[in-house]
Amino acid sequence: MWFERSHLSKSLLASRLLVAVKGFVIQSENCNIDLAELWTLSYGAQAAWNVGFRKVVVESGSHSSVQSILKGVSKFHPHFCLTEAIREMLTCD
Prior knowledge:
Structural class: mainly alpha
Domain RNase H type-1: 30-92
InterPro entries: RNaseH_domain (IPR002156)
Keywords: Signal
Signal peptide: 1-23
Distance between the termini: 19 Å
Shape: globular
Pfam families: RVT_3
């Protein structure tokens, strides 16, 4: 994921390097690929927000996860709560 600050005070390269060294690892006992991707997108978006990034460009290899976020899922879908939390983050200013 690459992030851009809406109010850059330093060079974009420095900002990108800062984000590149910040990372996270999530360990789960039982997880499918879509759930892992949704958690990654959720944690990444929250981490970016917490350090002040407001414009975020996200790259994902999971078409189904991206479609779930863009279109939403049924309230009976097993990933409904996580998908809706990500969708809510997208509406934050």
